[in-house]
Fold each of these.
Amino acid sequence: MEKKLLPLGLSDWSHFIIQSIADGVITVNGEMRITDLNRAGEKITGYSRAEALGKYCGDILRSSMCGRDCPLKQAMISGEAVSREAVLHNRLDQKIEVMLTASALRDDHGNLLGGVETFRDNAPFKLMEKERRQLAGMFAHDLKGPVVGVAGLLNRLRQGKVGELNEQQQAFLETIYQEILRLEKLISNFLDFVRLDLHILKPLASAIQVEAECLAVINRSRPMAEAKGVDLQLAFPQEVIILNADAVLLQRALGNLVENAIKYSPPQSQVILKVQDLGKEIQFVVQDQGPGIDPDDLPHLFDLLYRGKDSGQESGLGLGLAIVKRIIEAHNGRLWVKSELGQGASFFFNLPKANFV
């Protein structure tokens, strides 16, 4: 005989959902007394739900945030979600690093009912981050080092330091050397992305003259543009613009965008680097007259290793734009792109004049 499923009430559903969540969840009333604790929360704190009900939240969580900095109190007062890293002490007085996220609970009329806090054991994520840092260090030492060494030896051969080469040997050697340089650049790009992503590589901000940094990028990219027959231009306001940023990383971001624009531009077209002073922000625009970008590709353009539909025969693994995104975000900036098929593409990013530390 088929068993009928009975409808659940709203309170039954909320309890069922809370108990099914993989992260620890605790709910409190307006007096900060616990009204629910799920199974994951029992496992992390060491207290059963029955023991926790009715107790003050701080007596069960015993986190480093309990007291004036309590995320739950802040969320209930401000009405906005609050996330913090914290350390709580479980029933056995063991320290557990967690990520807390607290939110206020309100009814349909906006009346405060209490709060809800989720907490996740950070230990596996900390271990993963440590392993990623070690992996980045291993790549830097064990992979990049030999490639740089091989490039140096090949260059000595190219220069005839160990004897004359015939024309065919010279041609083969030149091909090998260029491929080694490409591999070295790929490894450097990957390592820079990982370092930026893990915040190992951080911007060292100082007052820089924007026009000088842009001119350095243009001059460095000009041979590439001339080889392809692309006209490279810089449009700059008359007044001197001073920006607080990391000069090396800013040049890296601009250089990646300019080289990307040249790469996808047809001969006898133009690539323009424009700079505008917007008051509190400086806007940089790299504009090309290439084939444009497919609308399906636009949302994923800055994703790591993403290759769009219209990449064609152009080489690369999509690291350049991903690095640009990390650099701009590290400077508290904003990055976006506008493009239509057949109408070229314009890459924009804005950096605040008064930047972070």
Note: The first strand starts at residue 24 and ends at 29.
Amino acid sequence: MMTSTMKAPAKSAYWAGLRDGAPFILVAVPFATVFGVIATDAGLTLAQAMGFSILVIAGAAQFAALQMMVENAGIAFVLLAALAVNLRMAMYSASLVPYLGAAPLWQRACVAYLNFDQTYLMSVSRYEARPKMTVPERFAYFLGVATPITPFWFVMTFVGIVAGKAIPEAWALDFIMPMMFLAMVAPMIKSPAHVAAAAVSVSVALLLVNMPGGIGLLIAAGAAMLAGALVEVWMERRAQ
């Protein structure tokens, strides 16, 4: 077992991460379950949906890619949508380098795979609060945060798939996906730049709703990012 090979300080850091990550199970369970349900409703097989969750392990990117699949988008557009949603992971990785860059390759590979919002946010907060942590302790803490979340993401995806197969087609679950996106996005709209980005994305998406293969959604996403950036620059200049 991983913890049995850790030294005492690293083991202590691991259990601290496990404790701090446990509350996020309450988030992973409903999101993973709903993903399993709508993945089945979208026509994915058990192997495809489970492979999706295991390989990608990124809720927002999975929902974005699945939405593009439902829109019958080409594989290139599906990948672009998932990449656009997950661009923040590149920033997460860059900010983790000062703390975990000296770790062995296999540990950095684990961090890359398990690097999602919860593990990143909790770990960086811990590292900043305790700058004297060693690299093994930092890795152990990161792994601890991921330990309770990751298995539940996989298991509840499976539960959602099984539940989705039991739901009659007449119930039509198409409305679930936009509701999930609203649940994820709404709490993040906190500034005028966010409001502008949301307004532009909705407007452009509605104008381009008849474009084939989900192209309209990608154009709307690009327009939203541009609008948000312009408003942010304008606000900074105004503040100066």
Note: The chain has twelve helices and no strands.
Amino acid sequence: MAGHSHWAGIKHKKAAIDNKRGKVWSKLSKAIIIAARDGGGDLSMNLRLRYAINDAKAVSMPKDNIERAVKKGTGELEGGNLEEVLYEGYGPAGVAVLCEILTDNRNRTAPEVRKIFEIAGGKLGATGCVAWMFDRKGLAIVPKAQIGEEALMELALEAGADDVRSEGDNFEVYCEPESLTDLQEALEKAEIETESTEIARVPQDTVEVSAGDAPKVLKMMEALDDHDDVQNVSANFDIPDEVMAGLE
């Protein structure tokens, strides 16, 4: 789990920088388009769209941008011809990596993602080569300053959560994907702000990464996360705290 947590923390720090470049808005627009295309534009009937719009609002994406993305997804505007693809492979030190892709040109995206893997010393694999190592889970990240662990545990379990874990300055609350809305609503009712809420791919087991390999793994993860067509990156690496401290 530590590997997932390390990357989650790094992603949150990067988000503020990426947002200034408009990169996050671009990715969230794609997520909204796909959600609206597959499930319609009614938030009360489309849970995935609701999550995507909540994420967009969390990074101050303009209302007009959100509405335009929804209309592209429902076909009211052009530009909704996106394809969902899952790329899988191995990075340095045998780390398993999953990339969730939204692209309008798979022939462009595939070689670009393959090159990122190869530069890092990894290799893009066949469909299904690592996906089985991950479980889809609802994940809410709650800053420890918001609430104590016992109180959060009681609240979360009552809302359908499976587990609460302490990671650095945050608590990570896990649940089944279909329980994430109930968990989110329970946290909001208790006036507890989350740093992020998402459907994540959580590794069943982790690979401990050495001090020599850690920079290579993180560099590859950042390169994948920076790619315009990559929506989410998941991996099963575990960087020990003492190694992570030396990298910060």
Note: The domain at 2-74 is CATH 1.10.10.200 (Arc Repressor Mutant, subunit A).
